[in-house]
UniProtKB/TrEMBL annotation, chain A:
GO molecular function, one term: ATP binding
Transmembrane segments: none
Keyword Amino-acid biosynthesis: no
Listed InterPro entries: AAA+_ATPase (IPR003593), ABC_transporter-like_ATP-bd (IPR003439), ABC_transporter-like_CS (IPR017871), BCAA_Transport_ATP-bd_LivF (IPR052156), P-loop_NTPase (IPR027417)
Sequence similarity: Belongs to the ABC transporter superfamily.
Identification of the protein by name: ABC transporter ATP-binding protein
The entry's keywords: Amino-acid transport, ATP-binding, Nucleotide-binding, Transport
Signal peptide limits: none
One family name in Pfam for this protein: ABC_tran
GO biological process: L-amino acid transport
Domain ABC transporter: 2-234
From TrEMBL, chain B:
Keywords recorded for this protein, A-Z: Amino-acid transport, Cell inner membrane, Cell membrane, Membrane, Transmembrane, Transmembrane helix, Transport
Superkingdom of this protein's organism: Bacteria
Gene Ontology CC, one term: plasma membrane
Protein name: Branched-chain amino acid ABC transporter permease
Length: 236, 289
C-alpha cells in the first residue's frame, strides 16, 4: 500500500532522515519505534509532504505521490493524525469531526460515521457542542483520532496516539487500533509505548538517528535483546 | 435625538463593518494586513457609478455589477500580488499590497479624474417619522443591505462546509491541509468575498454621501484597520460590532460635540478601548501556524 525508498530529509544543513526504506502492506499494522528525536515525526511529515524531502520515492497504492501536495495526498486516502493533539481549538467537537469528513463526497455517510465515533468515544458524544479548546488533553487526543476516522482513510497514520493518556485510555486506544485493523484499515503507528505497539502490530521498524537500524515481524523483534533493552525497558 | 443619532450611527457603522469584515477575513487566513482593501472599496463605488451612468443600469443591477467586479479585483490581487510572493519574508506581502494600493489609486485617478464626482441619486427618497425618529428610504435601503450581508456572512462562516474550511484555514493552515482542505483555494475565495463586501460598502457610502473620489479608499482603510483591531484580529463578529461602535461614536460626536472632532473622537474611543483590552473587545483569533 505504501512504499518508501531512499527517503532523505534535511532541516537546513541538518540531516534528519538518511535514506529510509519502509513498506506497509495492505491490511497491516506497522509500527515505527525509536527514541526521542530519532526522526519518526519527520518521516511521517515527509510522507505527507508537510516537510519537503530532499530525495527519495514514495508510492501509495502503486502511484508515485512525492510530487503531490498534502491535501492531494489526503484525498487519495492517506490520513495523518499528527502528534500533540492538532485539533481545531476554536471549533466545537462536532465541527472538528465534520472537518474530518471534509473530503467525503457522500453526505449520507457522515451521520453513521459520527455515530460510530461517538460509540467509540462516548465522552465526545456528550460534548458535541463544546469548544474543542475546553476538552481535557486526553479528550482532545480522542477527538484527533475520531476526526481522522471520519475521513475513512485507507491508510491511517497515527503519531503517538497514546501520548499523555491515562492507562485505561491507552488501553482503549490500542483496542480501537485493533478494531480498525480488523475492519480492514491499514495502519502506520508511531508509539513511545513500544511494548503495546509491538504486541498489536504485524511488523515494526526501529529508527535511530534518521536511519532504520532494525526491522521485522513484531513477534521476532520482541525477542531480540537490543529491542528489549533499548525500547522495552528490560535488562538484557 | 439620542435614538436618532443611534440609528444614524448604526447605518454609517454598518458600512464600516462590511469593510472591516474583509480586513479581518484576510488577516485571518493569511496573517496579512491587506493595504489595498480600501482601494477595492473605492473601486466598488466607481464600478456602480459607471454602470448606472454609462449603461443606465438600475440600483440593484449596478450594485450586483460592483459586487462581481470587486470580487474579480480581489481574485486578481491575490493571483498577481499575493500568491507569487514568498510568505517567509513576512514584510514582502505587505509591501506588495501597498504597491497595489498605489497602482489602483493612480489608475482610478487616470480613468475617473482626481476630483470628487457626484454619485447619482439612486433611491426615491421618502421620509418616515416613527415617533421621535426620522428615517428615510435611502437609510432603510443602506441599513438593510449591509445588515443582510452581515447575516449572510455570519451564516456562511458558521454553518456551511466552506465556511468551516475557511475557519480551519484561519486557525491553522497545516491542520486544514491535513484534513484535505485546498488552502490556496480558500485563500482566493476569502479575497473574493472580502473584496465583494468592500465593493458593496463603496456603493452604499456613495449612495449615502452622493459623492465619491479616488481617495475615499484611504480614509476608509484607516477605519477598517482600526475596527479590526477594536473587534480583535481575525474576529468576524468583532469586526461587525466594531464597525457599528465606531459609526455610533462618530455620529454621537457630530451630534453632541463638534463635527470637526469626529475622527479624533472616534479614534480616541478606540485607543482607550485598546488600552483597556489590548486583544480587542471580542478577542483576537490569530493564525497559529
Ligand atoms: N522544524 C525543525 N527544524 C529543525 N530541526 C527539526 C525540526 N523538527 C525536528 N527537528 C529535528 O529533527 C530530529 C528528528 O525530530 P522528530 O520530531 O522527527 O523526532 P521524533 O522521532 O518524532 O521524536 P519524538 O519521539 O520526541 O516525537 C530532531 O533532532 C529534531 O531536533
Ligand atoms: Mg515525534
Amino acid at each position: 500500500m505504501l512504499e518508501v525508498r531512499g527517503l532523505v530529509t534535511n532541516y537546513g544543513p541538518i540531516r534528519a532522515l538518511d535514506g529510509i526504506d519502509l513498506e506497509v502492506m495492505d491490511g497491516e499494522i506497522v509500527t515505527l519505534i525509536g527514541a526521542n528525536g530519532a526522526g519518526k515525526t519527520t518521516l511521517l511529515k515527509s510522507i505527507m509532504k508537510l516537510v519537503k524531502p530532499l530525495r527519495g520515492q514514495i508510492r501509495f497504492r502503486g502511484t508515485e505521490i512525492s510530487g503531490l501536495s498534502t491535501e492531494a495526498i489526503v484525498r487519495k486516502g492517506m490520513v495523518l493524525v499528527p502528534e500533540g493533539r492538532a485539533i481545531l481549538r476554536r471549533m466545537t467537537v462536532l465541527e472538528n469531526l465534520l472537518m474530518g469528513a471534509y473530503i467525503s463526497n457522500d453526505a449520507a455517510q457522515i451521520g453513521p460515521d459520527l455515530e460510530q465515533v461517538f460509540a467509540r468515544f462516548p465522552v465526545l458524544g456528550g460534548k458535541q457542542k463544546n469548544m474543542a479548546a475546553a476538552l481535557s488533553g486526553g479528550e482532545q487526543q480522542m477527538l484527533a483520532i475520531g476526526r481522522g476516522l471520519m475521513a475513512r482513510p485507507e491508510l491511517l497514520i497515527l503519531d503517538e496516539p497514546s501520548l499523555g493518556l491515562a492507562p485505561l485510555m491507552v488501553q482503549e486506544i490500542f483496542s480501537i487500533i485493533g478494531h480498525l485493523h480488523q475492519s480492514g484499515t491499514t495502519i502506520l503507528l508511531v508509539e513511545q509505548n513500544a511494548k503495546k505497539a509491538l504486541q498489536v502490530s504485524d511488523r515494526a521498524y526501529v529508527l535511530e538517528l534518521g536511519s532504520i537500524t532494525l526491522s521485522g515481524r513484531c513477534a521476532e523483534l520482541l525477542k531480540r535483546d537490543e529491542v528489549r533493552s533499548a525500547y522495552l525497558g528490560e535488562s538484557a | 435625538m439620542f435614538l436618532q443619532q443611534l440609528i444614524n450611527g448604526i447605518m454609517l457603522g454598518s458600512t464600516y463593518s462590511l469593510v472591516a469584515i474583509g480586513y479581518t477575513l484576510i488577516f485571518g487566513v493569511l496573517n496579512l494586513l491587506h493595504f489595498a482593501h480600501g482601494e477595492v472599496f473605492m473601486l466598488g463605488a466607481f464600478f456602480a457609478l459607471q454602470l448606472s451612468l454609462g449603461l443606465k443600469w438600475g440600483l440593484a443591477a449596478s450594485m450586483l455589477g460592483a459586487l462581481i467586479g470587486t470580487a474579480l479585483v480581489g481574485f486578481l490581487i491575490e493571483r498577481v500580488a499575493i500568491r507569487p510572493i514568498k510568505r517567509e519574508y513576512f514584510i514582502a506581502p505587505l509591501v506588495a499590497t501597498i504597491g497595489v494600493t498605489i497602482i489602483l489609486q493612480e489608475v482610478a485617478t487616470k480613468l475617473f479624474g482626481s476630483a470628487p464626482v457626484g454619485f447619482p441619486q439612486t433611491v426615491g427618497i421618502e421620509n418616515f417619522q416613527l415617533g421621535p425618529i426620522g428615517i428615510n428610504t435611502l437609510q432603510i435601503v443602506i441599513l438593510s443591505i449591509s445588515l443582510t450581508l452581515m447575516i449572510l456572512m455570519h451564516l456562511f462562516v458558521s454553518k456551511t462546509k466552506m465556511g468551516r474550511a475557511m475557519r480551519a484555514t484561519a486557525e491553522n493552515a497545516t491542520t486544514a491541509r491535513l484534513l484535505g482542505v485546498k488552502v490556496n483555494g480558500i485563500i482566493i475565495q476569502t479575497f473574493m468575498i472580502a473584496s465583494a463586501l468592500a465593493g458593496v460598502a463603496g456603493v452604499l457610502v456613495g449612495m449615502a454621501y452622493n459623492t465619491i473620489s479616488p481617495y475615499m479608499g484611504a480614509h476608509m482603510a484607516g477605519k477598517g484597520f482600526a475596527i479590526m483591531l477594536l473587534g480583535g484580529l481575525g474576529n468576524i463578529r468583532g469586526a461587525m460590532l466594531g464597525g457599528i461602535i465606531l459609526g455610533v461614536a462618530e455620529t454621537f460626536c457630530v451630534g453632541y460635540l463638534a463635527s470637526s472632532y469626529r475622527d479624533a473622537f472616534a479614534y480616541g474611543v478606540m485607543v482607550l478601548i485598546l488600552i483597556l483590552k489590548p486583544s480587542g473587545l471580542f478577542g483576537s483569533l490569530i493564525h497559529e501556524d
